[in-house]
Design a protein that fits this description.
The protein is 46% helix and 15% strand. By secondary structure, the chain is α+β, with helices and mostly antiparallel strands. The chain has a single domain, classed as Hypothetical protein yfbM fold, CATH 3.40.1760.
Length: 130
């Protein structure tokens, strides 16, 4: 994919969120992720990136998660990886990291792996807010 495409929206952030509490998880399900100041609330561990990164990561990670967990992570709608799927996603992410030599992918996947590990520890989920 041509990541220099003039049609990429480089002003729009994409977010992956890990709720840190059960209440935060319930807020994620209701898409109530912002605080009163319009900032993502501190009850979520987050990573953010632009559309060019999404286009780079989608075939390297998200497509595998979609196939493994029967999800549809894409840039047009929100998706949630439920608690019961997190161990599978963690193992898949570790395998993809181990079998890659792309530094950009590895850096992203390790940050994502950390979100998954925290979600497992907190018994919550992972939210994709695009």
């Amino acid at each position: 994919m041509d990541l220099d495409n003039k049609y990429l929206d480089l002003s729009h952030f994409y977010f992956i969120l890990t709720p840190l509490t059960e209440e935060a998880m319930n807020r994620l399900y209701r898409y109530e992720i912002y605080d009163d100041n319009g900032v993502i609330s501190d009850v979520f561990l987050t990573m953010d990136f632009y559309e060019d990164t999404f286009c780079f990561i989608e075939p390297r990670l998200f497509d595998y998660i979609n196939a493994s967990c029967n999800l549809f992570i894409n840039m047009y709608e929100e998706e949630i990886i439920e608690t019961e799927d997190l161990p599978k996603v963690l193992e898949l992410t570790k395998d993809l990291i181990a079998n890659s030599d792309e530094e950009r992918f590895i850096a992203f996947a390790k940050e994502f792996q950390h979100l998954v590990e925290v979600a497992i520890e907190k018994n919550t989920c992972i939210g994709f807010c695009f």
